[in-house]
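User: C-alpha cells for this complex, please. No commentary.
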Amino acid sequence: MAEEQESALQLPPSTAPEAEVPTEVSPETATPEPPSSAAVSPGTEEPVGDTKKKIDILLKAVGDTPIMKTKKWAVERTRTIQGLFDFIKKFLKLVASEQLFIYVNQSFAPSPDQEVGTLYECFGSDGKLVLHYCKSQAWG
Amino acid sequence: MEENEFFGEKTFQHYCAEFIKHSQKIGDGWEWRASKDCSDGYMCKTHFQVKNGTAVSHQGTSDHVQTFLPVEEALDPPLDDLEVNETTTAAEVIKYEYHVLYSCSYQVPVLYFRASFLDGRPLALKDIWEGVHECYKMRLLQGPWDTITQQEHPILGQPFFVLHPCKTSEFMTPVLKNSQKINRNVNYITSWLSMVGPAVGLNLPLSYATAASQDEGNVDGQDSSIERKSLEEH
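Assistant:
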C-alpha cells in the first residue's frame, strides 16, 4: 500500500524529521479533517520538540482498513490506547459494529489502558512510535 | 481463505510453549495442562480481582481503584498468600480462570473463561460484562450471544464461557500477512490473545510483544564468525 507520504500538520517544517514530499492524498478514502478532539492534537500549541510532553505517532493502516489522510500525530504521553481508539474511530467514522485494533510491533495489541508514552519508550524508534491499526468484525 | 492463519494442533502447542516460556520469565502465571492421555492440552491462567472495592493491598503498589489488578502483579498465589485488606469488607474477591484451547473445527485457538466468588458461586455473564473494557462494550453489547456462548470445556467437561472463534481467522489474517511482509515471525497465540483478551478482562503485559520477535534466534552472526575464524586458521 502506498501510504508513506504524510502531512505533518503539527510539526513546524524545520523540525520535521523526514523531509518528504508533501501530502499525497490517499486514493481510497478522502477523510475529512478530524473533529476537534482532546485525544490527540494536530495543533501547534506546543512544539513537538519538547519530548517530555508529547510524542510522535505514525499511524499505519493494515489490510483493507481506510487510510487516514493525516497519519502523523503529536500525542500527549499520557494518552491511552483507548483514547486513540476513540480518535481513530471518529476520524474513520466507524460504526459501533466495527472493532478497531491497534498494534505495536505490527502484531501485538496493547491493552486499552496502556499509555502511549510507555509504548514510545518500549517500541519507539527514529523519534516516533509506529502504530498499525486495523478494523474488523472481530465478534459474532 | 488462505492457509496461513489456520494451523494444526502441533503448531498451536508450539506457540503456547513459547508463550508460557515468556510467562514464566515474568511471572505471569500461565501454565500448560495436558489432558489425561496427553494427546492434547490447553494453556491456563487464574487471577484474582477485587470487585466493587478498593485495590487489594498486594505489595503496596497497586493504585487501581477499578476492577482490575495489573496483570503483572496478579501472580497466581495460593489464597493464603494473597494479602487482602481486611477493612474493605464491601469488596469481594473474584477468581477468573482463562483457558486457551485449540479448536479442531475452526483450526484456531479459542478462549474459554469463567469467574466465581471465592465461595464457589459462579458469576453470571452479566456480571462478567462489567469487567469488559469500554472500548469493547459497545460492540459486544450489540449481540453478546453471538460472541460469547456458554459451552462445556472439551477437556474438563465443565461449563465455561467461550469467546466465539468464528471470526478469528478473519481478524488474524491481516496481522499475520503484514508481519510476513517484513519477514517477522509472530507468535500467533501472543498476538491473538493480546487482541481478544481485553474484551474479557485479560490484559497481557507489554513484554510479550518483544518476546515474540526474540524467539527467532540470533545464530547467524555468531556462527559465521566462528566459521571465518576456523577458515583463517587453516
